[in-house]
Backbone:
């Protein structure tokens, strides 16, 4: 079965029933999986741009998590919860970078954000692209590491 990735011009052949997160990782996409594939974070979320019926239906847990992710819509799926069932799927990869620890941002203080930096649980933009990263901004995210460790355990 063929699966295409947007916006890059790449495609892959996958086996029926393949887990979408494993497909992304096998194709060297740097997708994070903060909750380790349990369907309770935003980091593996993707948008389905074509043939959504080619994925397994969303589970109640996935629907619950999607309802909490900022910007999620009917095309959003959690890759770790999705299996490829049909041919011709097109997947859009996230447009920002998910942050896993506050330290990642602390290391960038004084620099401009190269991309939107996204919250790993809610998907909200923590630091918008091109914004200068300052220590005072990061005070808003003091609990990030605790939030992540709660869902990673
Ligand atoms: S890895 Fe957390 S929801 Fe998929």
Residues:
């Amino acid at each position: 079965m063929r699966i295409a990735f947007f916006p890059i011009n790449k495609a892959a052949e996958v086996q029926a029933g393949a887990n979408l997160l494993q497909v992304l990782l096998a194709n060297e996409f740097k997708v994070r999986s903060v909750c380790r594939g349990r369907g309770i974070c935003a980091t593996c979320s993707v948008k389905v741009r074509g043939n959504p019926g080619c994925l397994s239906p969303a589970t109640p847990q996935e629907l619950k998590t999607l309802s909490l992710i900022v910007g999620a819509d009917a095309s959003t799926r959690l890759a770790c919860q999705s299996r490829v069932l049909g041919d011709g799927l097109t997947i859009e990869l996230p447009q920002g970078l998910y942050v896993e620890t506050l330290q990642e941002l602390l290391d960038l203080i004084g620099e401009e954000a190269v991309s939107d930096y996204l919250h790993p649980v809610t998907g909200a933009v923590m630091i918008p692209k091109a914004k200068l990263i300052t220590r005072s901004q990061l005070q808003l995210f003091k609990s990030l590491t605790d939030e992540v460790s709660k869902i990673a355990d």
Q: What stands out?
A: The chain has five helices and eight strands. The radius of gyration is 16 Å. The longest strand covers residues 45-50. The chain has two domains: 2-92, 97-152.
